[in-house]
Amino acid sequence: MFQQLVERSWLVAPAVMLALIVLEEWSAQGTRPRPGSGRTVTNFTLYAAGLGLVGLIATLVSIWPDDHAVLLVPGFGLSAWLDLSWGAGLAVLVMVDSLFYYCLHRASHRFGLLWRLHAVHHTDRTLDVTTGIRHHPLEALPSLGIQLAAVVLCGATPAQAILVGLGNMAWALCTHAAIGRERRRFRWLGKVLVSPAFHGLHHSCDKRQTDSNYGNTFAVWDWLLGTATDPAVEQPGEIGLGSAHDRDEELLVQLLLPFRRAAP
Asked: Does residue 42 contact residue 251 with C-beta atoms inside 8 Å?
């Protein structure tokens, strides 16, 4: 199972992205003027560079010897301590991972070096599915660290960790997609899960909106911890940082942005 999961995991992102691109074009917002090809190339190149860095780390550090091994410390973690079934352990990992991501994302908007890396994601002036893969390659390092911490704390198996990682990636693509506002009858779901409308506010150049809605998969952490902005009440402002750093089509500018003296 583990080997098959690894071998087929690379198909998830392209399949989800293709489906969302079709949905963007089909939806009402798909009729808007499309961004230039330079921006799209930049987003995909940043994604490829990040994948390369993650692949290099995975090659250099062999952590999981087989499908049944618990990461790093056998017998350690919530799954072992609470004697959880495989499915219950997966559910616990999903919630812990989402909370850890919320904390990292919130910190990335507050602390200098983390923000310099994360700002590349926010310099995109158009919000669509490719924004979901637009990250500075070095931002993969804190992201991997926080994911590893969640996996260790939960005592997760490799298969559980990969499933959660794939789910996070797929949902991140969904929440950045330009597929219109959530329908009123489904707004209750936005109290639990992050929707495109909920996350769209986070990409506003209005700092009050940008510094809210940090969740990746679950909106519940924002509602519980007082950082939620309700998309049923507010509309996002202009997308981007609203500054000279919003040169979203220039790859070299984005790669060097965290190291510039006048970083955002």
From this structure: yes
Sign of CA dihedral 177, 170, 51, 197: positive
pLDDT digits (tens, 9 = 90+) for 190-248: 789 999 989 999 999 999 999 999 999 999 999 999 999 998 888 888 888 876 555 66
Taking residues 64-71, report their average pLDDT.
48
- Provide the pLDDT confidence category of residue 261 given band limits of 50, 70 and 90: low
Q: Which helix (H) or strand (E) holds 105?
A: helix 86-108
136: closest CA among 264, 252, 46, 245? 46
First to last CA, the chain: 45
Rounded Cα distance between 177 and 197, Å, is 9
DSSP annotation of 239 reads B
Cα-Cα-Cα-Cα dihedral sign, residues 172, 175, 176, 178 = positive
> Of 30, 214, 36, 251, nearest to 123 (Cα)?
251
Q: Output the pLDDT for position 237.
A: 81
DSSP run (H or E) holding 26: helix 12-26
* pTM across the whole model: 0.88
Handedness of CA 228, 197, 217, 128 (dihedral sign): negative
Place of tokens 């939960």: 154
How far apart CA 75 and CA 72 sit, in angstroms, is: 10
The residue written with tokens 């809210």 in the block is 212
Tokens (6 digits) for 19 = 């489906």
How many C-beta neighbours within 10 Å does residue 88 have? 13
What's phi and psi for 243, nearest 5 deg? -145, 180
100-122, pLDDT tens digit by residue? 999 999 999 999 899 999 999 99
